[in-house]
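Retro notes - structure team

What went well: the batch runner handled both jobs without manual restarts.
What didn't: labels got mixed up in the shared folder, which is why I'm recording both outputs here explicitly, each with its sequence directly above its tokens.

Job 1
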Amino acid sequence: MTKFGSTNVGLTSALSHLDWSQDSSSLVINSQANELMFFSLDTKKQIAASSAKDIQWQTWTCIFGFPAQGIWPGLDYTDVNSVDRSRNGTLLATGDDFGQVKLFKYPCVKEKADYNDYYGHSSHVTKVKFSADDKLVFSTGGGDKTVMVW
């Protein structure tokens, strides 16, 4: 189990994604076992997802969670490798195992939501990230070992 301070957080696999709340009082985490958990840093305890619904997140890079539930193309929850929400909170970029970079509206809550897709990498996209001004998206490719600017 993964530790949170001296407390077990209950993850059954390695931590894969983590985001902070705007007031730095909470964390949302994902694991390689497709787990989604929320934590209060004040109490150092897990909080229910229903209690986390009104938390404002400074960033959103988690592949699982309410604002990213519409990004999944099918039932295999290993296809999306990276997510990044624009700083202005209107777009969500993803990088997947098919070499695609996709842009969704944020939050992306509709199942199989509409998106714009961009091809350029020869295999899986390992990371996507918006520029500081949200005008560009950077992506890195796993097999081609390239950085692309969109």
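Job 2
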Amino acid sequence: MVDKTGLAGPYVYRLDFWPESSIFQPHGDIPSMFAAVQEQLGLKLEPGKGSIEVLVVDRAEKPAVN
């Protein structure tokens, strides 16, 4: 995800949703994650392409005994 809200600072929030890939059925009227973000936080998730920083580890070894 890329944050394009322009809002600065940390926020604490609670988001109630039911995973769409779950094999269990939700109890009551619990929305999907995408619906919950829009309904409960007032934010809309939109698909798109953008640049992000990526760290690639090609190889890892145990350190040598000193």
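One thing worth noting from job 2: The mean pLDDT is 84.
We'll revisit the folder naming next retro.
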